[in-house]
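for the recovery benchmark. tokens below, seq after
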């Protein structure tokens, strides 16, 4: 599985986004160490705070299916530009994979790879 393929899977997942309030659609594809991929999209709610981001949808699907070893997550959005994960999603990623690779695509389609530890240094842990 290449990161280009992972971004394509995230693109497909974005089509399921439920975002009638922001109209900002996000898709994510989470690559597990064993090669399994879990997808996610953002799911908004009339009580805005109940909204779930695409990244957390993918991570929660994976964990609930018994997967906790993650290698990379690809994130795309209808915004076109690089869409960095929000703070809550970064913290959820850090719980399971402090060295997770975050694969984004900029508005020119160029892939960029970040390390979670550079996006969330000194993360909280117990
Ligand atoms: N959103 C995500 O799905 N992931 C992020 O990392 C940032 C924001 C969603 C939440 C909401 O549905 C919409 O984008 C606008 O904030």
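predicted aa per position
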């Amino acid at each position: 599985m290449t990161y280009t393929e992972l971004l394509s899977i995230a693109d497909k997942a974005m089509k399921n986004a439920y975002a009638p309030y922001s109209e900002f659609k996000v898709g994510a594809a989470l690559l597990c160490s064993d090669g399994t991929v879990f997808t996610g999209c953002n799911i908004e709610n009339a009580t805005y705070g109940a909204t779930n981001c695409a990244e957390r949808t993918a991570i929660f699907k994976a964990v609930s299916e018994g997967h906790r070893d993650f290698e990379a997550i690809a994130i795309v959005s209808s915004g076109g530009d690089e869409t960095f994960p929000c703070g809550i999603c970064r913290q959820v990623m850090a719980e399971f994979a402090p060295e997770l690779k975050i694969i984004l695509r900029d508005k020119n389609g160029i892939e960029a790879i970040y390390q979670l530890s550079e996006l969330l240094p000194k993360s909280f842990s117990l």
